[in-house]
Hints:
This protein has helices spanning 10-21, 30-45, 72-76, 85-93, 150-241, 246-274, 285-294, 297-302, 323-337, 391-401, and strands at residues 47-56, 61-68, 79-81, 97-99, 122-129, 132-142, 282-283, 306-311, 318-319, 343-351, 354-361, 405-411, 415-423. By secondary structure, it is α+β, with helices and mostly antiparallel strands. The longest helix is centred in the middle third of the chain and has 92 residues, at 150-241. The chain starts with 9 loop residues before the first helix and ends in a 6-residue tail after the last strand.
Amino acid sequence: MKSAIQELTQTTLFQKIGDICATVNTALGAQDLLEKSLHKIMDLYGATRGSVFIAEGGSGKLVLKASYGMKLKEEQSMVKQLGEGIVGRVAKLKQPLYVEDIASDERFQNFKLRGSYATPSFICAPLLVKDQLIGVINIADKETGSRFNETDMQLLDFLTTQVALNYRRIELHQKFKRIVREKENLKDRLGQTDQEKLNLKKQIVVHEKLATIGKLAGGIAHEFNNPLDGVMRYTNLCLDHIQDDEVVRGYLLEVKHGLNRMANIVRNLLACSRDEHPASQSVEIKQAFEHALSGKMNDIVRKNIIVERKIASNMPAIPDLGIERIFSNLITNAVDAIERDGRISMAADMYAQVLVISFADTGRGIEEENLEKIFEPFYTTKDIDKGCGLGLTIVGEIVKSYEGTINIESEFGKGTTFTIKIPVPEYDG
């Protein structure tokens, strides 16, 4: 009786062998490769039973990884030791073998054939890569009932070499991908570490600058307090004595307001540098904005700047931790950024318990690479006679004192928008 292989034409045989060798191209992974290769090899031989065992490195164990024609109970308990049975013997000797009839084969006199086998004939070959054992493939039970021969064994030995090479190739490819992933993860972690280091360095620089502000503010407070007190006292005396001359009285009131602003600037500088904020009364948003706006009206009129306000009617009063100073600095920056015929828009509304203030201008905007720097102390793009780079630093610190956030969007040549969010927990709508 001819074997399944003998019945194949040479062309068909080569096609089937080539298909087995190319299994790696369709395999999704090492396990998939073993299952597909085993199935195709069994089909080539017309076998109904087959198995693939993979060696566990250094343990001396061979673990069943793929099988067809075996009962589930057999699969679950199938672990072989080197030298044990046909599979173990092939693994130990690293040589293929065929058994025509296990009952009459002197090499396996003590081997007891399981009742699940249909025939007493086997072929078995090691999966080797340069004499390194990968595993073993065992084929049994031809569908025709015929027995295996030496030619079958030699062909299986060739096929197992291809399977072993493909198996190792997939393993190495998966290992390579794992290393690449680990490298990328490491790069990400290193990148995060570098970013954290950079952020920490920036914080150190900022705190050093804030410490400098503290020393500067302390000196200013010491040097300014006495003269300011004196000028304020005499201004109040003049106001008490001026009753009829409304023009002079108006001038004195402007002087007094300017002196109060000077004193407030010093207090804000101290609060900014010491991480503490002056306690004061509540203030209305509209009132604070209009007061801050009045200080820049001359420049606003001169540059023909339109000011738009959209302040909701349900605005709650908030603690006066420096909200007018925020408006004053933002208005000053906006006016300086507009050459002529521009627009300043301010909107304020409550969303749930969050006060949202939007402040936009149509000035020259800020270049993208400078956006991260604008809140740093002493950073400025203005001429030296127009600013020293503390305005937005103070704005940022005052917003923090409200436990709020400030976000900036800017497009160079088109304008800038600041969005400030301040939580107002006591607001009930």
